Amino acid sequence: MKRLILIIGIMAFLTMGCFNASNDSNYVEIKYREDKVDISHSRWEYLDTSKSSWIRGAWYDKGNQYMIINLNGTRYHFCELPSSTWNRYKKAESFGSDYNEYIKGNYDCRIYYTPEY
What we know:
Blueprint: H1 2-21, E1 27-28, E2 37-38, E3 44-47, E4 55-61, E5 66-71, E6 74-79, H2 83-90, H3 95-103
Antiparallel strand pairs: 1-2, 3-4, 4-5, 5-6
């Protein structure tokens, strides 16, 4: 009986390990948002901002007009951000300047619709 319980326990452990190894989710915390968001989902367009000294990535969900931006390790969100603003941001000479001028202080998720994921 002990051997059977041990075998079942090992199988359960191995099964959980395999499940977690194949899980491609990347749930991240976002400041001022209660739940985490999976930014590895195909709905997200990722913008490489490595040329910036303080912006560590940006993600945009066109269907929900929702943007997540990583500012020095803290992720913030912006709601009802038009795709035209995102498209301009992607082409910006300076991600920081464009963020400060066109995004920061706008698209407040306390005012606008915040999508559920």
